[in-house]
Request: fold
Amino acid sequence: MAHAGTLTLQNVSKQYEVKGAALPVLQDISLSITPGEFVSIVGASGCGKSTLLRLIIGLEEGYQGQILLDGQRIKGTSLNRGIVFQEHRLFPWLNVRDNIGLGLLNSDQTEGQKRMAVNEHIELVGLNGFETAYPHQLSGGMSQRVAIARALVNRPDILLLDEPFGALDALTRAHLQQELHRIWQQEGITMILVTHDVEEAVYLGDKVVVMEPRPGRIRQVLPVPLPHPRDRASFAFTQVKESVLREFLGHPAAELIEPPLRQEAPAASQWQFAV
Reply:
């Protein structure tokens, strides 16, 4: 079982410079995530959810405030933090076993230990029998299983998930939500999920962080006091989902689409990273 990390964000703010002007992206984000907790983050496009994940994973710096993992400031990328993106980002010339093994390139384990870890994680994500299959031979859901296994094979303290099921059909998405829940409980790892899907956020999260845009800031943190596994059709589940939706939709419709005209802020550049 992985060691679960305590993550603390203290007054985190972030801005980009666009055409010589400062563009605030995050403002005064403070949040505490306890070991083994599953936290869902929801919010409109442009509220800085993905930027926040990139700061936590260490792909971006130049922010104000503190991001601490077990009391230590995060600096750069590390094996103790894994990430899964919406696109699986598998290498097409490598099979399932070798794509997962990429997660161990910087590990100090022996070759035998690496083989054992890869085999364990192939079993963990339910891909026994597909070890030698290539990405073009896999469905979208199976490819995301490989990406999850690759992110977990180092046994990180924290797993970050940036819309990991956003490109999948509804049935596959629901199934992988169940699988992710099983993996979380089995591994005891801290997980942070960014999603636009409020039902997904409530189904998986111990708490739901609702963000609002321009600049991105926390509107509300809502606990999900429901036992696992959760019944999406239950009245209690519907109540929690509706409470999150009320916060999520608690903006004028035009403000969710674009900033108020008085701000006249330029659009932020799109940043892409390969991991």
User: Anything to note?
Assistant: Residues 252-275 have pLDDT under 50 and may be disordered. The CA atoms of residues 122 and 146 lie 8 Å apart.
